[in-house]
Specification:
CATH architecture: Up-down Bundle
Largest sheet: none
GO molecular function, one term: peroxiredoxin activity
Radius of gyration: 15 Å
InterPro entries: AhpD-like, AhpD_core, CMD-like
CATH superfamily: AhpD-like
Order of helices and strands: HHHHHHH
Protein name: Alkyl hydroperoxide reductase AhpD
Structural class: mainly alpha
CATH topology: AhpD-like
Strand content: under 5%
Distance between the termini: 24 Å
CATH class: Mainly Alpha
Number of domains: 1
Organism: Streptomyces capoamus
């Protein structure tokens, strides 16, 4: 399978993703736990049907020490016992924010309050930015039908 369009070769896409990647570095350098960041990226990618990002973030998470059991259960986190209350709050916020068009009124107050109970303002800022950024990456990859399976951790630097 080939992508409809090569985002990696296009100069406009290159400039755009340079800025996306810079935003990603700000988030990765924040105090939002790295494991939570990977879970959020994986869950949003699953919801959006982004095969490329699902492949990437599951492999990156494993590479950074995440367990296969937890990765296997991200899609069914509500019934899984392997996530902390803070991780569960982040996953819930991720789902609600990723599916924002499906909910009249946006993210429910109780979902926000639960996340705010577990994360300080800087972490919440990073979490919001991460959800927005991974959704942007997902949408670009889904639109061009970016193939999955060949990602190797660290291949993008």
């Amino acid at each position: 399978m080939d992508a409809r369009f090569d985002l990696h070769a296009n100069p406009v896409a290159g400039k755009l993703f340079k800025h996306f990647n810079a935003a990603g570095r700000v988030i990765s350098e924040s105090t939002l736990p790295a494991a939570t960041q990977e879970l959020v990226k994986l869950r949003a990618s699953q919801i959006n049907g982004c095969a490329f990002c699902t492949d990437m973030h599951s492999k990156d998470a494993l590479h950074h020490g995440e367990t296969q059991t937890r990765l296997n259960l991200v899609a069914v986190w509500r019934e899984a016992t392997v996530f902390s209350d803070a991780e569960r709050a982040a996953l819930e916020l991720t789902e609600e924010a990723t599916r924002i068009a499906d909910a009249a009124g946006g993210v429910p107050d109780e979902v926000w309050a639960n996340a705010a109970k577990h994360y300080d303002e800087d972490q919440l800022t990073a979490l919001i930015a991460l959800i927005a950024l991974i959704n942007a990456y997902n949408r670009a990859n889904v639109i061009v039908q970016q193939p999955a399976g060949g990602y190797v951790p660290g291949m993008f630097g």
